[in-house]
Amino acid sequence: MDNPFAAKDFVTLKGIKRTDLELIFETALEMEKIVEKRTRADLLHDKVLGVAFFQVSTRTRMSFESAMLRLGGGIVGFADPKTTRSGDYYSESLQDVMHMMNGYADAIVIRHPQSGAPAEAATVAEVPVINAGDGYNEHPTQAVQDVYTMLKVKGSIDGLKVALVGDQNMRVMHSLPLALAQYNTHVYFVSPKDQAMPQPWLAEFTKVGLSFEQRIDLEGILSDLDVIYLMGTKTPSYSEGRTEVMLERPQTPQPYIINREKINRAKKSIIVMHPLPRVDELPVDVDSMDAAFYFKQANNGVAVRMAILSLIFGR
Ligand code: CP
Fold it and tell me: What's the gap in Å between 220 CA and the centre of ligand 1?
């Protein structure tokens, strides 16, 4: 089968095709067998993944590292730029770090507070660069794992009505519709007016043929939805490396909280997804409901990232 990912960067879902997604999903299904057995394959035994996280992460970094280790490969990198010359007196540039990592690793996964940093890194590094989230721009591997989760739970993506609830400036809110546009879906962008989907992204979604509408709440659509994809409306700055906890976090307005009462008013088959971490927009008492799929969604990140890595390495 043709592998469009071989030796390529993976920095955006702009231009992604349905067949590309299907190839990742088919590969991820195979990878799940390795994850479920809690074993290691030797597919990438001769490869090293460079992990360059200039911004905090729980899931994305560890699932990439786990994916690489499960495939028999090695990892080298940092989870905190403060431990490198980027984060001290020298403020070493992204370009210089990429020149170094290009020699130390066979592919580089990068998270960065600056939009466009992975694309910039890819102009320096000769090895493939993977975007693990850049500022307020994109989070492509997250979106792929999200659609994979929908597919696994729902059996098909075509026909789904999906509400993306929360701050539409968040990066996964931009990558996910690009993937959903490859299917026959209808997407609602649900947010406060001052956190609506930015116009350039609306233009991008129109260009790729996404069926969508914008709403300020779930009024009148809740009972029609198949998927609620939730993010906060009270989030830290994604253009900083990290934001320390505030003494008193602002509270999420009611329309953007998904609680048991709202889920009970939705279809019995509705699924609630969230890329995590959460604050108060998703109360913990939802976790025990049949609709709660966010921990499964996070776990799917390993198999999906194994698939992306193995395809990029052409194996
Ligand atoms: N979903 C996600 O990107 O989580 P992390 O910030 O923990 O990687």
Answer: 31
